[in-house]
Amino acid sequence: MRLLELGATTIALLVLAGLLAGWVDAVVGGGGLIQLPALLLVPGITPIQALATNKVGSICGTATSSVTYYRRVRPDLRTAVPMAVLAGGGAAAGALSASLLPAAVFRPVIVVALLIVLVYTLLRPALGEATALRWHGHRHLVAAGGAGLAIGFYDGILGPGTGSFLVFTLVGLLGYAFLEASAKAKIVNFATNLGALAVFIPHGAPLWGLGLAMGGANLLGGYIGARTAVAKGSGFVRAVFLVVVTALVLRLGYQVVTGDVFTGD
Length: 265
Fold this sequence. Notes:
globular
C-alpha cells in the first residue's frame, strides 16, 4: 500500500496520532494506545502490517526522547545499556514466538498486573519522588537485566503497556524516581522496538512510507514530551503514568470482555 493511496484526511489523522503517541511515550510510555488503533482502523492494512508500521513510527520517537532525556537528565548508562541489550534480545525472541501463543491467553493476566500497578502507585503517593535504590552493584544489574529481558520478551510477543511496565519496574522494583525511570525506560524501549523490527523487516511487514510519516510526527512528539517531563519533574510523570495505566486497564478489560484484538506499547 502506497502512502498517497490513503487520502489526505487519513494521512493527517495518522500523523496526528503519531504526534500524540510520541508525546505520551516520551513522558511515561503507552503511546501504542493511540497509534496502533489508528493504524488498525485503516482499510486494507493487516494486523501484522499495523504492528510493524507502529514499530517504525515508535522507534523514531523513542530514539529522539532517549537522546533528549540523556542530554537533560543524564541517566546512568551502566544500568540502562545492559538492560536495553537484554530487552532488545527478549523482544526479538518474543516477536519470533508471537504466532505460537495467542494474545487472549495473556490479556486477563495483564489486566490484573496493571490493576496491581495502579493500586500500588495510588496507595504510595511518595513512590518515585526521589531515587533510593533498593540494591547496588551486581544485584542491581541482575535485577535490571532480568526485568529488561522479561519485559522485552513481553513487548515482542504482545506489547500493551510495555513502557508503563518499564517505568513501574524501574520505580517500584529498583527504586528510581519517576523522571529518571522514564529516561531509562526510553532507552530500553528503543531497544525493544529495534529487536521487534529485526524480526518484522525481513518479512516485509512495515509500510515504510506510512511508518516514516508517522515516525516524523512521533519524533516531534517525543522531543516535546521529553522536554515537558524534564521541565515538570517526577510529580508530573507520576500523574501521567496513573492516567495511562488507567486507560490501559480500561482498554484491555474491554478486550477481555468483548474479545477485541489489540496490541501496542
